[in-house]
Amino acid sequence: MSLIKGIESANAEYSDKFTKGDLSLPPAKKAVIIHCMDARIDPSTSLGFQEGDVHVIRNAGGRASDALRSVIISQRLLGTREIIILHHTDCGMLTFTDDKLRNILKEETGQSVDHISFLPFGDLKQSVLDDVKFLQDNPLVLDVPITGYIYDVKTGKIHKVDR
Ligand SMILES: [Zn+2]
Predict the structure, then answer these.
(1) In this structure, which CATH number among 3.40.462.10, 3.40.50.2000, 3.40.190.10, 3.40.1050.10 belongs to the domain 30-94+124-154?
(2) What's the mean pLDDT in 99-108?
(3) Which site in 57, 77, 84, 122 is 20 to 30 Å from 68, CA atoms measured?
(4) How far is the CA of 109 from the centre of ligand 1 (A)?
(5) So what's the pLDDT on residue 163?
(6) What are the transmembrane regions (predicted)?
(7) Ligand 1 centroid vs 35 CA: distance in angstroms?
């Protein structure tokens, strides 16, 4: 079955049993999770959330600076008051440098993208600490609890990152 046919068939089944059409727009648990886009992780099943509970912002690495626009909207317009940052073991962001990706793009497109940082990292724990600090120090972000975790893709367990 093609991907699109599979999506449509899965959704037909899902929507047949759908009972959550009355959820309110602001997340019930007033929280936002910033999470890597890695396909091996499903924050709903691994962290026990359901539709309507939390905002989930996903990007490559779960980087806070990339998520800033959405965090501001989440807090100022939709009332979230807690942030969880979730990075993970075996992340693709540990496998390249800005220069490497910039060179690939330059070679393949002729475009110079030296002004873009793709936000890779060399140290997983440090990347979580850096992102917690980025949000704590940002004047546009409300002073709310921010907790950082590393998710282990081999065990499905999260580990809190403390200084
Ligand atoms: Zn990742």
Answers:
(1) 3.40.1050.10
(2) 96
(3) 122
(4) 25
(5) 76
(6) none
(7) 8
